[in-house]
Specification:
Elements lengths: L1 H20 L2 E2 L10 E2 L3 H8 L3 H31 L5 H8 L1 H4 L2 H11 L6 H8 L13 H29 L3 H9 L4 H12 L1 H16 L3 H6 L11 H11 L3 H26 L6
Antiparallel strand pairs: 1-2
Helix pairs in contact: 1-14, 2-14, 3-8, 3-11, 3-13, 6-8, 8-11, 11-14, 13-14
Amino acid sequence: MPSFLLLVTLIIYPTFFVISNSFYFWNLQTSPVPLQFVGLKNFELVFTATPFVDSLRNTLVIAFVGTAIEFWLGMGIALLLNAGVPGTSIFRSLLIMPVTIAPVVTGFLFRYMYYREGGLVTWLLLQIGAPVSSRGLLGEESTALASVLAADVWQWTPFAAILLYAGLLAISDEIKEAARVDGASGWRMFWHITLPLVRPTAAIFIMLRFMQLFNMFDLVLVLTRGGPGTSSRTLAYNLYQEGLANYNIGIAAAMTVLIVLSVTLLINVYIRIAFKEWEW
């Protein structure tokens, strides 16, 4: 009960604070308290005075593309581990290491590797003949967002692999043996047996990672600060910029309401599709 009351308090008060102040003009550079009721003006300013639409587009790209890449790469690694490749125990130990690193540290690590002169990633791209702008990967609008996403994929694909590997281990050997006896090929076994049986684990992973990627902030702050321009600005960074850099608490509150509604809508649609066959 104490834990429940604490959780409710930590949810109810911030929610009430955000919703109530989203209808007031409040800038900390002007006043320590809300000044006047402005109705829906803050919501209008979110779209007209901030790059909210660009941030939403970038966030959706990161969330959908990042989740898909991490899931399928993780699935490939999990299948290799499940096949019993040599050194599986060592690989399993190494896989957990990127997940234990703080996102800020990962950001600095990739920032050094993205340097135009001497960066490991840049050097590798130049070796295979890939064009790299003189402004570097993080300084070019066409590559900044992908570079941020690549850092996240490196850090969280191992998490997908470990989770999906656990799901693969839970599949009964009798089911797989029966499929082999019936003459099922490797691809048929994967699409009609392995993937459906690992679906509960996969569905939970996809939901968790989508929500985390939808709120990406650390890597954007360290690598690009939303630039160049707004090419890599996410909703979370846009919220930080308005609330903690520009001190526009009213606009930041309105933006928070819109973000919460957006992610809630997307997750509820996903739950209805992915978990419709579950017994609750």
